[in-house]
Design a protein that fits this description.
single chain, 382 residues, alpha/beta, Urease, subunit C, domain 1, TIM Barrel, eight-stranded mixed β-sheet, eight-stranded parallel β-sheet, 13 helices, 37% helix
Amino acid sequence: MENPFILANADLVLVDRVARGSLTVADGHITEVTLGGRVPAGAVDCGGDLLTPGLVELHTDNLERHLEPRAGVAWPVDAAIAAHDGELASAGITTVFDALRVGSILSGGKTGTGAYAREVASRILVLRDQRRLRISHFLHLRAEICSETLVEELELFGPEDRIGILSLMDHTPGQRQFRDISKLKDYLCGKRGLSDLEFLDHVAELSALHRRVGDAHEAAAVRAARRCGAVLASHDDTTGAQVTVSAQHGARLAEFPTTQEAARASRDAGIAVMMGAPNLIRGGSHSGNVAAADLLDSGDLDILSSDYVPGALLMGAVEIGWRCGDMARGFHAVTEAPAQAVGLDDRGRLEAGRRADILRISLPPDGTPVLRGVWSQGRQVG
C-alpha cells in the first residue's frame, strides 16, 4: 500500500449530510471513512475545514482561452494544455471534459474559425497517457451545426479517442442563446471589432448557411456520438419542441437550456439539466436567458458547470449550499451529479473504494470558499 495518509477532524460532505470525521487514503483511493473528531497519530488535523469530493467539470471553454490568449495569437499547444490543467487544479476541479469545437467557417473573414480540435485532442491524449497532467481529462466535442466543415472534422474522431461528450451546438443568430440579436451584436462587435454592416452581413451569411446544411449536420453529429460512444448533449434548447427532438436523438444532458419551459421539459424527459455557475453567481444570464437561480428554486437544476470561469464551480456549489441550507446538496451538483451524467461511477463521493479526488476547503464568515488542498487520485496537486 503506497503513501497512506489520513485527513482528520474535518466536516465531511457526504451524500446526504455534512458530518465530522476523517478520511484514510492509499493507492489513489479512499480506503476508509470514519465519523468523529478524533485525530489519529500522524494524521493531518483539518481543524474543522470541509472535505469534499473533487469537482467534476463537464463543459468549459477555458482551454480555448489558453490556446488563443489574445485574438489572433496562437500559443504552443502543450503549454496551453498544461496551463489550463494547472488552472483547473487550482480551482478544485479534478475531472474535466475539455470542450473542443468541431466545425469551422473558413470563409468568414473577421468571424471565421479554423479547425483545431483534432490536433489538440491528440495532444491531450498523449499528455494524459504520459501522466503529465495534474487532473483527469476527457474529451468533449462541441459540434457546431452552423459551420462549413463539421462532417469532415467529425470523421477524424473514432471510438479509440474515448470521447466523453458530444454536444449539439447551434449558434445561428435569432434562436436559442442568441434569440436577442442585440446580445450577439454586443458580443461579436466587442470581441471581433465588427462594424454594423459587417455584423449584418455575418448574420445573413450564418442564417443562409444554417438553411443549407443545418439538418444534415445535426444528423451527422448524432451519428458521430453513437459511433464514438459519447454521451449526447443538447445545448441552449429553448422550447419544448426542441427538447422533444433532443430526446429523440438520445440526449442525456441538457447544457444551458435558455427557458424554464425547456428545462422542465428536459427533466420530464429524463435529461439532466446543467446550468452555468457564473449565471448563478452573477444573478442572471449575460445573454438575457433564464436565471440559474430560478431553475434551482423550481427544482429544475441538476448540475453546475464553470463554463468560462473555472473558479465559479466551487463558488456555485457553496452558493447552492447557502441558498438551500444544505451544503451536501450544493456539492452534489458539482461532484456526483455530473459524474453520474457521464457514467463515471468511480468518483464523486467520499466513500471507501472511490478515487481519492478530494478538496479541503475553508469557509470564512463571508461565505467565500478558500481552497486549502487539492488531491487528484491521492496525489496533492494544489
